[in-house]
Specification:
Elements: E1 2-8, H1 13-23, E2 30-37, H2 43-50, E3 55-57, H3 66-80, E4 84-87, H4 96-101, E5 106-110, H5 125-134, E6 138-145, E7 155-162, H6 169-193, E8 197-200, E9 203-206
Helix pairs in contact: 1-6, 5-6
Bound molecules: 5-O-phosphono-beta-D-ribofuranosylamine (GRF).
5-O-phosphono-beta-D-ribofuranosylamine (GRF) binds at residues 8, 10-14, 44, 88-89, 109-111, 124, 177, 181.
Length: 209
């Protein structure tokens, strides 16, 4: 049974998709050891509590500087001893010490088809605003391993979503969540937990296809 820790900052709809998939048996061999948020008021923490999952609030604001937060964050993660760390809408930069220690055991969901609309400044609604501004006809979501870059780690899975005439950023965000994020992330966790993916020469390969 793999221990997973999910890091969140906001509404937690991706966390909810993970919880629902676990309870439906669509994710196996995983237990959610804890949910960590930098935002003590995040609805995501309420979702964790509603399902009896340990919820931890840990914010850079509670520390004198970023290095003090990073040290505390890594120490807390080590205490939880996860086999997998899932970033589900987590808006805090992962400390280099964490990516080093948990290399290729940290995955992130990003609401675009990387390498489009990603990197510094591309998060949440902003991603969809930029996609609409550019006039793309197809967008989507990406699950990838996390390295020291921003949205640059090996890509695990992607799913395309059509942009429709008249879409607002909010409407497009919801469609990308429903049609891509909430499907990709639980499946990537199940694939990882059941040994179906590995990284070879910086690329993800599926070992049972
Ligand atoms: C999602 O759009 C996700 O792709 C991005 O942040 C958002 C988090 O939403 N990383 P939620 O907290 O899972 O509802």
């Amino acid at each position: 049974m793999l221990r997973a820790v999910v890091c969140v900052s906001g509404g937690g709809t991706n966390l909810q998709a993970i919880i629902d998939a676990l309870e439906a048996g669509q994710i196996t061999n995983v237990e959610l050891a804890a949910v960590i948020s930098n935002n003590k008021n995040a609805k995501a923490l309420e979702r964790a509590r509603n399902h009896g999952i340990m919820d931890i609030a840990l914010s850079p604001k509670d520390f004198e500087d970023r290095s003090a937060f990073n040290e505390a964050f890594v120490a807390k993660m080590d205490e939880l001893a996860p086999d997998l760390i899932v970033l589900a809408g987590f808006l805090v930069t992962i400390p280099p010490a964490m990516t080093e220690k948990y290399g290729n055991r940290i995955i992130n969901i990003h609401p675009s088809l990387i390498p489009s609309f990603c990197g510094v400044g591309y998060y949440g609604l902003k991603v969809h605003e930029k996609a609409l501004e550019r006039g793309v006809k197809v967008t989507g979501a990406t699950v990838h391993f996390v390295n020291d870059g921003m949205d640059e780690g090996p890509i695990i899975a992607q799913k395309a979503v059509m942009v429709e005439d008249g879409d607002t950023a909010e409407v497009l965000q919801r469609r990308v969540m429903e049609q891509a994020e909430w499907i990709l992330l639980p499946k990537a966790i199940d694939d990882f937990a059941n040994g179906r993916i590995k990284v070879v020469d910086g690329k993800v390969i599926y070992t049972d296809k």
